[in-house]
Amino acid sequence: MISFTRADIPLIPEDVAFAIAPCAGRELTDTGLRSDIAHSLFSHLATRMGFGDADITVEKEIGGRPVVIAGDERWGASITHTPGMIACAVNRKGEIGLDLERTDRSEHPALRKRMLSSGDDPDLLDRCSTIQLWTIKEAVLKLHGSGLRVPMKTVALMPVDDVRNDSASKFIPVVNRTGTGGNMGIGRNDSSAAVRPGKSEDRTDADSAADNPGQVRDASTDVLVRARVHDLEALVCSGRIDGFRFALAWQIP
Fold it and tell me: Is 118 left (phi over 0), alpha (psi -120 to 50) or beta?
């Protein structure tokens, strides 16, 4: 049984969507099983965008970047996995980069320093945890197509003016689907439970989320940043789902 979760998040373009599924054990270590789960997630996203499962194929470009062929359309795609969860994203209008990490992941003391760029905005760095910075920069490198073959310090992060508002700091409705004929549930959209910009990261239990795939997910977004790596400029949406940090990156048109 796979629990699908798709967040309708106002900070990301309507042509960008992502889904997550709890996974553990062999699902994480077996490449074939991970591929099957990823294909199921891509099929789920395609169905929500008006394409049936029979209409899509998942291919790999040179360098390993995935691409989804849906009918006559070619969609940018990205896959990521971490203990307890696998996630996929698509972009109908270009490439996409996605990263997902547990918020309770252990951190080497020197990790943050190795990620920093001279072009990073100091105020933005002060608001972001180390795991948040990691997900943002890795998502940008996956969008770029280089992945971690390129040092994270090559990615410079800058603020985006006039994008933060109440809708960006509230819990976002999330659809949860268990199995092929499971129940649909809507997560809360409760302004009284807002995650305000700059608030320290809540340490939720990622293991509990993975062990209970039928539960409705809470998702929130808290920052949108501008990023530059080499000749590519991107926007990155950063947020949380249960005990996980995620970041989605797409190229600035």
Answer: alpha
DSSP class of residue 160 equals -
Mean pLDDT of the 172-185 span:
31
Reading the block at residue 60, the tokens are 């790999």
Closest of 116, 84, 130 to residue 244, by C-alpha: 84
Which among 61, 18, 67, 28 has a CA at the least distance from the CA of 247? 18
- The encoded tokens of residue 26 equal 């062999």
CA-CA-CA-CA dihedral for 33, 84, 234, 228, to nearest 10:
-110
Could you give the maximum distance between any two Cα atoms of the chain, in Å? 51
Q: Which helix (H) or strand (E) holds 153?
A: none
Query: What is the distance between the alpha carbons of residues 97 and 142, in angstroms, rounded to a whole number?
Result: 5
Note the pLDDT tens digit of each residue in 211-241. Answer: 444 444 566 777 889 999 999 999 999 988 8
> pLDDT digits over 101-128, tens only?
999 887 887 889 999 999 999 999 999 9
